[in-house]
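Final report, closing paragraph on structural work. Over the funding period we assembled a curated collection of sequence-structure pairs, and we close with a single example.
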Amino acid sequence: MMHSDKYIQALVGSQSFFEIHQEEVLGVKMDVFKNRPRSLVDFIELSASHGEKPYLIYQDKVISFTQHLRLVKKAAHILQSQHNVKPGDRVAIYAANCPEWIIFFWATVSIGAIACGLNGWWKGSEAIKAIAAADPNIIVCDQKRFDRIADQAKHPTLIFEDLDLTSYEEELNSFIRINEDECACLLYTSGTTGTPKGVMTSHRSMIANSTLQMLQGAAVSQHSSSYGIDWSKNTPTSLLTSPLFHVSGLSAGAVTSLFAGSTTLVYDGRFLADRVIQLIQKFSVTSWGGAVPTALKRVLDEAEINSLILDSVLVVGGGGAPMPPELIERTKKAFPNSEYSFGYGYGLTESGAITIINWGENLKAEPSSPGQPMPSIKIELRDEEGGLITADSVEGEIYVQSPSVMLGYYNNPEASAAALTNDRWLRTGDWGYKKGLLYFISSRRTDLILRGAENVYPQEIELILDSHKDVEESAVIGIPHDDLGQEVMAIVSTKNSQLSDIELSAWVSKDLADFKVPSKWKIINTPLPRNASGKLMKHVLIDTSKNTMVEEDE
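Its predicted structure, as stored:
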């Protein structure tokens, strides 16, 4: 399909690095990048050409591409020689953002093993579920996460704080040749039951995603340069605020930076707007790709309060939730040199992240749209029976086909079959419509709550609430929040007039991460509304809760 942006269209032409042609991908003809590397091992080997240029900056550490390559080889040797990790084995990584996370990811894929990126925000019980499902040869983690699972973990564990890779002498002798359709990593996403599902992401998928990121970067560079933006002023430095266990942090962040030879500034700890701004100023950050609406709004608030203009930043990109037009305009004022490159889009872990992007002239014309498909990405809208929808403004489920789409869910054939068609179309579960080349998201996955950049599945919380002895039934819904987009509300039916929201919060908190714990509660002594078939009518609860919340806020 012809892309409407002239810069992208020119870049994917014949004889270019981004040239596209057709190949079979797992038995299906698809558009692919002709000149792509054939595995992530190629990324590692190519990184040596960047020499002493900084790859990772973390707190007071600066790790060059050369140093990183040596550390990867040392970590790979440890995995092979001390823990007998072989091709196809799993290595679970459970930690906050840090260089060791990245080093052990690259070490794992370099020996043909599979990196399992566990959500660092999970409490012990949630992490243990994922570990049990992956059955890794070894868990590598930081001390804080180890303490969460120490009494339950049954697998060998390596703690980052106990490891000094710089003094370790032995290194991997040679990298392993890997088929690009082999699994490189598992990135976890929860289903409606809350059971973690490991999204099997291939080498091909991560390479395709990184190539798309670089294509987009090349296009916005050419576009903004035509308006006089100077891209040579500062060294390309990307601020990584997304967690590494998330596709945007790992694939779009650390992996793409290695491929492109750019510097990654690794953010760790709780997201603090003033600290983000300090880092942008100190290191003359040129790109911030993790600007999800919640994080972006907080940074803009801080910048506006202090009358700051962050002019080193040439690229700001977001996603994860709808981007209000007002927020787009504020972004352009705080980051003036990003005016011609700013964009946001739509994608899933299962689709390999980048799928649809809106920027440039399209963004000006339709700021509420996440955009049009990137090259090599096919999008279809289908009705409830799977029939193709071609007409504009007709809502349907969004289907995606591309080299970036997941292999399936690890050890979960039922879920894989439900998500993937035989010809490798991904059923996203999201609904939308199109106008011309642009797509619009009308509703996310059924009942899904988008709290900041985190997905919250109500059924997971409802199951825990319903297990409480005094709870008759419960319903969890998302209600509007000025900062987060949505916050979590629970409506609980009980016959115990003494049951409090404090007790219920503690009940949920013992098993789930803090961002999943409801912040709003409504405790009633009447049954929840259901239809004739017994199905809970959440739309009634949502409408009622909106009105109630407005009154309470006043």
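Residues 531-535, 545-554 have pLDDT under 50 and may be disordered. The domain at 450-553 is CATH 3.30.300.30 (GMP Synthetase; Chain A, domain 3). We thank the funder for supporting this effort.
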